[in-house]
Amino acid sequence: MTEISLEKLRKEYGGLTAVNDLSLKIEDKTLVSLLGPSGCGKTTTLKMIAGLLRPTSGRICFDGNDVTALSPKERRIGLVFQDYAIFTHMTAYENIAYGLKIRKLSRADLDREVRDIAKLLRISEILDKRTLRMTQRELQTVALARTLVTKPSILLLDEPLSNLDAAFRVRMRAELRRLQMEIQQTLVYVTHDQIEAMAMSDKVAVMSKGVLQQFGTPDEIYKKPEKKFVAGFIGTPPMNFIECTFREDGDKAYLDQGTFRVDVTNLRSIIERNATGSEMILGVRPEDIAVHERAPTKDAVEVSIDSYEPMGSESIVYARLGSHFIRFLASPTFGAEPNEKRYITFDIDGIHVIDKKTETCIV
Amino acid sequence: MSRSEREIAEKAEVLEEKLAKHGYVILALAVVFTLFPLFWLFMTSLKPLGEWASRPPIWIPSSLEFKNYWILFTGGNYSPQGGSQSSMILTFTSVTPALIDSAICTAGGTILSIVVGLLAAFGIARHKIGGNFLPLFVLSARMIPPVTALIPIIILYSTLHLIDTHVGIVMAYAVFTLPYSVWMIRSFIDEIPTQLEESAMVDGLSPLAAHFKVTLPLIRGGVMATALFIAVLNWSEFLLALTLTHEAIITVPVKLTYFVASVAVLYGPQSALGIIAIVPLIVFGYTIQRYLARGLTFGAVKR
Amino acid sequence: MAKFDFGSGFLTILQDSRFLMALGRTAMFVGLAVAAEFLIGLYLANLVSKSFRGKKVVFSVFLLPMFVMPLIVGYTFWMIFQPSGPIDHVLTLATGIDFMSTFWLSNGILAWIALIATDIWHWTPFMFLILYSGLVSLPENPISAAKVLGASNWQIFKDIKIPMLRNIIIIALVIRAMEAMKLFDELYLMTGGGPGFDTETISMYTFTTAITTARIGYGSTAAIIVLLISLVLIITAVRPVLLVREK
Question: To probe the interface with B, which of C52, C71, C186 has the most B CB atoms within 10 Å?
């Protein structure tokens, strides 16, 4: 129910800049993920939104009001930790009731609220259970209930699913998304799992080393990455990066790798306009590479098969191209001996051209 | 700054609470109460004879009577202040033998305790000797009032002619501090993975050699802290010294009681001896405390 | 060849009112002193865990009394509680009533107050140290969670921190109680068990009967009883801690 606005948020510790001039607007009622590898500053940012950490500089606004100086209590937020931070000396009921007890709700009101949320999250049976005996799944749900029962305007989740078993994680992912949409909650979700972020979010903020790399919908991030980091981080299996040089040959333009070259004539003007030099990186997703036993065109590239993994619906194939290792997808019936030769072609519409120096995606 | 340092700094910042105004007042009061007895002791040690027991009491001596200190080492005598029995003179001998006796007993007792404790700790930690029973049995030695164990020791020592001997005291001190020695060293050994010793034994070392060549160097700091802790206990020990010695050996605590006679108390020199006695304790204490404080965070972020 | 006589010694001593009184006084002393040390230690530990300048110095000062030789603690407080000593002086100045001839150590109740005050000064640092270590090593997330739920510092302290320290508190109390039962050095120097037997605790009783009056058998019996009581106390107190650990 609240829009969050981060303006040039910065957090420094001694010599280390954990969050570097982060500016972001999270719209009301949306689920936004802060995605990135560990140490990228996403949890630090979350804690600043929560009010547990003070930014070194910058502002945080909720619905246009500057909350940077407010305590966590005054911000009316909800927070779920990765380890759930359940109060182990209390029962589930007492845990969930704690926030309401602080607010001095009457016994009857408190009881009603707790039982309502327990019913919503389907944990009514374990309300009196001692938390020391609970499973991870139960703990996670109790942590969620404890937060939701205080009806916060913003919900903050710090990798809430990473301690769960895989099957439950997938189910909980959908549950959380459904819940968020149902109660129209503004939700900020921190994770390092890009599949999770892509599956659940309205928008994703990709971060690396304290810097925001890109903020967009999952579709935008996947199809139109703006930075090499984003291109390489999003997508499973990850994108292939092949170093090459941009060359012009008469009225044609190529990305020349040495052993092969790709015709990029129709992208020539864009590249010329945005490139800082001629050193490029060719980015191709595994799913945009097709493999053939014999070269279908003369542009096809010869590769040497290393190994492959049959995954049921498809196979992931690892091959060597010159000094590069590349991955691509093949049919589930793919088979080859190590060092056998195959030929691959790229889907030209799907390639990305990355300026090697600036690590920005030109195309 | 590394990642874990950043996590420590973050934790410190998240948990930080500011001290309220009345908190400062309470802390100041607590500091005053803590330091006052020591202050009094120190001031008394520098009071000239006339100021020892005056009414109202004198808080700060008018002049610094360092004589109280050096007279301890030379021995001396006093006649009671203004007493009608002017023929009564309090004599005391130099405290130097007492300091030496205390040093011998402390050092001896500590070394013996550590040596035996090391062997026992390795036995319990690595070889599970005595199963669950032995560690608790050793600890139980601390549960009883020392007076209790003293009785059989007196009987034993009388028979073995160990009363009033250095050997007797050293052994008694070792026995009484053994529980600390064993338990503390054992907990340090438990922190070192057994794989290190196992790989050394694969290379041909005997178990005992593995213990002392591989693990012991790694727990050196902990053993030192234990030794200092036990040294503090031994140096301060009074009851055993009182009952197991007569004239040949006088430790510093026992010597302290010699400054009291029925007529008067030699506050000055007695306090001076007290100060001298606790100086090594405070030094040891701070050394241990720095080791203790290693695990406690005072806050990693400098303001 | 001495005869072993198990029963009569125990029976006799359990009917000895002096012994029972000593037992009672020990229980009272341990109860009062340890409780006071715990409460003061807890309060100071919480205070020092906050942030302020000079924290390291204050911490070191607070630990100091623990390291002073018990006998010297006894001696110093013996001096302090003398009639017309500093305590009497301060009381007189503060209240306007003349306390100057109050002889603390020769008056039953006042002597106990002096002894308990001495033990508090000597051993509160121990409680303080243990509780402080416990407080600062508490995990941050439950505390942050409580903050976000709206709890004040005081509410966090009583609802979250103290319950999480339960095991440490129990261990600290048990250790301190065990040691307090053995009080000797200070007692010997300050009152010697007197006036009369007013301040005689178990350790003093055992010492006097066994060593001073050489009734070794009797003294031993007293000692064994104390040992049994200690064991029972420790087992009942420590069992809840061990049970929780197993989970």
Answer: C71
Q: How far is A19 from chain B (nearest CA, A)?
A: 12
pLDDT tens digits in sequence order for chain C, 247 residues long? 455 566 666 777 677 788 888 888 999 999 999 999 999 999 999 999 998 888 888 998 999 999 999 999 999 999 899 888 888 888 888 887 777 778 888 888 889 999 999 999 999 999 999 999 889 888 999 999 999 999 999 999 999 999 999 888 988 898 888 889 888 889 888 888 778 788 888 888 888 877 777 677 777 777 778 778 877 877 777 776 666 554 4
**Strand extents, DSSP E, chain A:** 4-13, 16-26, 31-35, 57-62, 65-66, 77-80, 154-158, 186-191, 203-208, 211-216, 240-249, 252-256, 261-263, 279-284, 289-292, 301-310, 315-321, 324-330, 341-346, 352-355
- Within this chain, do residues A209 and A348 fall inside the same structural domain, yes or no? no
CATH classification code of B96-259:
1.10.3720.10
| Chain A to chain C Cβ contacts (< 8 Å) | 59
Residue A360 lies in a domain: no
A110 and A14 inside one domain: yes
In-domain check, residue A363: no
The Cα of A312 is separated from the nearest Cα of chain C by a number of Å equal to 41
| Complex ipTM | 0.86
Q: Which residues span the domain enclosing A215?
A: 4-233
Residue A157 sits in the same domain as residue A271: no
- What domain count does chain A have? 2
Interface residue B19 vs chain A (CB under 8 A) = no
User: Is B1 close to A15, i.e. CB distance below 8 A?
Assistant: yes
For residues A205 and A265, membership in a common domain is answered with no
Q: Which of residues 13-52 of B touch C (CB under 8 A)?
A: 14-19, 23-24, 26-27, 30-31, 33-35, 37-38, 40-41, 44
Are B1 and A44 within 8 A, CB to CB? no
The nearest CA of chain B is from the CA of C158 a distance in Å of 15
The C-alpha atoms of residue A29 and residue A180 are separated, in whole angstroms, by: 8
Would you say the C-alpha torsion C95, C97, C103, C107 has a positive or negative sign? Answer: negative
Task: Provide the number of CB pairs (under 8 Å) joining chain B to chain C.
Answer: 193
The verdict on pTM exceeding 0.90 is: no
Chain A partners of B1 at a C-beta cutoff of 8 Å? 13-16
Q: For residues C61 and B196, what is the distance between their CA atoms, to the nearest angstrom?
A: 40
Which residue in C64, C65, C71 is closest to B236 by CB distance? C71
Which domains are delineated in chain C? Answer: 7-65+122-246 (1.10.3720.10)
Tokens of residue A288, six digits: 């945009």
